[in-house]
Specification:
- The chain is α/β, with parallel strands linked by helices.
- It has eight helices and six strands; from the N terminus they run βααββαβββααααα.
- α2 crosses α3.
- The longest helix has 18 residues.
- Bound molecules: zinc ion.
- Zinc ion binds next to α5.
C-alpha cells in the first residue's frame, strides 16, 4: 500500500487546492488497486539503452511494481511506501507541456494554464509521470518511436493511472472540476 503525502504545495489557491487533492485521491485509489498491479505486471516496458549504459535498468515488471509502491525517491524521502510530493503551480507555458520536474530535486512544477484545463485524472497522470522520475526512471525525449516512449515507466505508469481512474472511478471524471 502506498500513501500519497503532499509535503508542500506552492501557488495553489483554495479552489485549485481542492482540485489538486481530488487528483491525489485518484492516485491513491488507483495505485492501491489490484487493476493497477495487473497493469504494471502486464506492461511491456521499454528500457532505453543510451551511450552504452542503461538509463532505465532492465528491471522485471514485479520489480518495477515494487519500486513504485516502495516509493523511495532519490531526493527528499523521509519514509518508505509514501509518495512525497513537492508541488508548484507556476505561470508561463510551454506549448502543450503540462509541467516538468528538475533532476536531483523533489520539486514538480505545473503550468497554471494547463492545470486549469486538465481533468483530475489528467493531473494524476502528470503528477505520477513526474514523480516516477524521482525514483530514477526516465525515458527518451521526443522525437523517437512513440511506442517505445509510451512504454517507458514514466509514460506508461502515468497514462495507466489516468485510464484506470476514468474506468474504475468514473464519478471522479464526472466531477472533474474542469
Ligand atoms: Zn518525463
Amino acid at each position: 500500500m502506498i500513501t500519497v503525502r503532499l509535503i508542500e504545495s506552492n501557488g495553489y489557491d483554495a479552489p485549485r487546492l481542492l482540485k489538486l487533492h481530488a487528483s491525489l485521491a485518484i492516485i491513491s485509489n488507483v495505485m492501491n488497486s489490484p487493476a493497477f498491479m495487473d497493469a504494471i505486471f502486464d506492461a511491456r516496458f521499454h528500457f532505453r539503452r543510451s551511450f552504452s549504459r542503461w538509463i532505465d535498468k532492465p528491471y522485471s515488471n514485479e520489480t518495477v511494481y515494487a519500486m513504485l509502491m516502495r516509493a523511495t525517491e532519490a531526493t527528499g524521502n523521509t519514509g518508505s511506501y509514501t509518495m512525497e510530493l513537492h508541488l508548484n503551480l507556476i505561470d508561463g507555458s510551454n506549448g502543450s507541456v503540462k509541467g516538468y520536474g528538475i533532476p536531483n530535486s523533489p520539486e514538480i512544477y505545473t503550468y497554471k494554464a494547463r492545470f486549469d484545463e486538465m481533468t483530475t485524472s489528467e493531473m494524476a497522470n502528470h503528477i505520477v509521470h513526474e514523480w516516477t522520475h524521482k525514483l530514477g526512471f526516465t525515458h527518451a525525449e521526443y522525437p523517437m518511436p512513440l511506442g517505445k516512449r509510451n512504454m517507458s515507466v514514466p509514460y506508461f505508469t502515468g497514462n495507466i493511472v489516468e485510464i484506470l481512474a476514468d474506468t474504475y472511478f468514473p464519478l471522479q471524471k464526472l466531477n472533474n472540476y474542469k
